[in-house]
Amino acid sequence: MNSSDLLVFDSKGIYCPRAKVYLDPWKPVDRAIITHGHADHARFGHRNYLTHHSNIPIIRHRLGAINTQGIGWNEPIQINGVTFSLHPAGHIIGSSQVRVEYKGEVWVFTGDYKSEDDGVATPYESIRCNTMITECTFGLPAFKWKPQATVFGEINAWWQSNQQDGKTSVLFGYTLGKAQRILKYLDTSIGEIYTHGAVENMTEVLRPQLEMPPTKLITPNTSAKEIRGNIVVAPPSAHGSPWMRKFVPFETGTCSGWMAFRGARSRRATDKGFVLSDHCDWQGLLQSIKASDASRVICTHGYTDIFSRYLRELGYDASIENTDYEGEKEEIATPEPIPSA
């Protein structure tokens, strides 16, 4: 990158020198614009936080008493002559892209994003720009998502089959974003929905903004008999823990983009894998970049080498920058091998 660039990457994060503002910094700074509430993008210790209104309850729940300013979609705010605005990223509820403009030059930092409208997050908005900073968590041609309705048809059929076999269904999904997406589309005509405390707490924070079915928090007093045949939504960290003993007999399922890889399910010791991600697949990334009209693309976390090389073959000025972003914890905590041709 050039020192004259509108945005630069330094030891603290993505920095706009002219405005003296950081985007999703990973070390404490004076002023931070936050794209969404996942822990790798919204960190504790900044003096001032700027984010979308709908993300404020999330980051306050996670970070405590912080100094936060909220703005709406497409609402311009000027800082030292630079115009910033937030635009829907479609990743999870409250997730934003950051548009940065100065003297006609436009950069867009996508944060994490998803081009499919999931009916939970505000749908992704394509923004025209000169330079686009994109994640590429699933930047391989092997990743091609099924329509969401198809995946939830599979999930509900799995639940019903388990119920007929006298088993409880335990479904794992990240506490923020994935869990609420799962809850919204479970078929409550099959049975009742129970939740792990971490999922329940975050869901209660989001209920004022989302229409979701009723859930029952699992407590020490919850009996195995009342849970039997119903479904439990829990974070991946609960898998294999003593907490699950009361669900016996049960079947486990994991919702993750990594379930598209053969062998991922067995490595995670889960009975069933559902390919459901809050990130773009290969085509989603390419289509989003094309729609932006950007000539320059900076690739951050994910399959950066392969994806940036392919972009260069297409004629883009594509490069890689290292960040401290990890994507969803359960999606990339275990690196997956690149599949053979």
TrEMBL record:
Organism field: Algoriphagus jejuensis
Entries under InterPro entries matching the protein: MBL, RibonucZ/Hydroxyglut_hydro, Xnuc_lig_assoc
One GO molecular-function entry: exonuclease activity
Domain of life: Bacteria
NCBIfam families: Xnuc_lig_assoc
Membrane-crossing residue ranges in chain numbering: none
Protein name: Ligase-associated DNA damage response exonuclease
PANTHER family noted in UniProt: BLL1145 PROTEIN, CLEAVAGE AND POLYADENYLATION SPECIFICITY FACTOR FAMILY MEMBER
Keyword Zinc: no
Keywords for this protein: Exonuclease, Hydrolase, Ligase, Nuclease
